[in-house]
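Researcher: Going back to the complex we discussed earlier. I've cleaned up the inputs and rechecked each line, so this should be the final set. Can you rerun the prediction on the complete assembly and write out the structure?
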Amino acid sequence: MIPVAAPAGEAPEYELVGDLLRKALPVAPVAVAVAAIFAGLDGALSAGVGVALVAGNLLLAAASLVWAGRISLGLLMGVALGGYAVRIGLLFLLVLLLQDLDWIHLPSLGLTLVITHLGLLFWELRYVSASLAHPGLKPTTAPATFASKERAQ
Amino acid sequence: MILAEITDTGLAALTYGIGALGPGIGIGYLVGQAVQAMARQPEAAGMVRTTMFLGIAFTEALALIGIVTGFIF
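Model: Rerun complete. Updated structure for the full complex:
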């Protein structure tokens, strides 16, 4: 039978974004500090806004995909494409509105947006590719060898 | 006689619009394949969705770079 929706209760996107946000917690102060060194208080504030925008964008993406996945795979397809357009439009609008504020330093905001987004994804990718499973299932110890399994028996 | 004129802002918007087509096509293809994979192997849906989400986020980074480039330069 062809499934019409993702299995109920499964939401790997939330798990993934939760892991990404946990990783963003130590990244945010670093981004703010680096921006503060190069652009002062304005840069630090802009970097903080940048990290918040990245986190919000990822959360929104996960929420929309989980919602659509529970209804049907067809809707998942539509929401993934429509969501891309909506979220990019929203980000564009937010940056457009923010750029006129006195305390916004655009290079800090822009670079934080791109570097944090890509950096967090590459960081997460290491765990996902290592386990080929949900981030929560990532291996914490070295895999058991055949010899160690025999010794255990 | 000038029939049409495009300003710098208009040109930037047009360029970004064309640039955003790439990630759009990429996400469409990616999600299409992921949905097909989930329909064929429902037991692998969790893994497929994890990979799909990462793929979407990576592809979206291209559009994000376009936005940032437009605002900075």
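Model: Worth noting: Chain A has a mean pLDDT of 83.
Researcher: Good, that matches what I expected from the previous run.
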